[in-house]
Amino acid sequence: xxxxxxxxxxxxxxxxxxxxxxxxxxxxxxxxxxxxxxxxxxxxxxxxxxxxxxxxxxxxxxxxxxxxxxxxxxxxxxxxxxxxxxxxxxxxxxxxxxxxxxxxxxxxxxxxxxxxxxxxxxxxxxxxxxxxxxxxxxxxxxxxxxxxxxxxxxxxxxxxxxxxxxxxxxxxxxxxxxxxxxxxxxxxxxxxxxxxxxxxxxxxxxxxxxxxxxxxxxxxxxxxxxxxxxxxxxxxxxxxxxxxxxxxxxxxxxxxxxxxxxxxxxxxxxxxxxxxxxxxxxxxxxxxxx
Length: 290
Prior knowledge:
This protein is mostly helical. It has 2 domains: 2-68, no CATH class; 74-286, MetI-like fold. The chain has 15 helices and no strands. Helix 1 (2-44) packs across helix 14 and helix 4 packs across helix 13. It is flat. The two termini are 48 Å apart.
């Protein structure tokens, strides 16, 4: 009898171990597939153009890293320090404005009752469906008429309106914020901005960190709009400078291109590693309704 009762338990244990093993294998494969393009990019940055054209996918480091660095130093269109500085200023400004004002907007939609609230939120959702290229011509004409082209502020200020971030943060607040806490703060005499800054924002920290990563990465990698607005080399971002490395119709130094891409990606990797622990927390809590 004892052996008969233990058999199903052993079978379930074996099935559980097999299932977990399959999950681990799939996770390892997905991790390898995710890391592989970055690895190839970094390895190609140490190889010469001839080696890259002969074998585009290199998984072993080459010996031409210093040669590629020296070539980049001689190019007038590529200045890594200027590009990194401009990219960081624009991306940091976009992230700060987008996160703070979007959190304000989402809190106002969630916590207050006012006329046209549903219509306003529906309008925010509708704007999410409009491609950014549809508004580009009008935006550029406005910048040109007011002599604001080649101004980094025109890449930062529009981020105050970020419909996707507003939607995500509102969904997070519905599951994470209890209005009783807000009411208690009001009874204690706290003003609305003090309540928001000292109580609501700390509660939203995981969601804010998640959206900060996505916003920063999106702004850092943005090529099209800066390429349209900026026309002075001193204001070029890293994506523009890397794009210009492909501008020579006679010869392209692919090793230098991969090196520029590596220099562009490294800050993003560092920021992701610093804030990645908030991504799962923010998405998981944002999907749970209280």
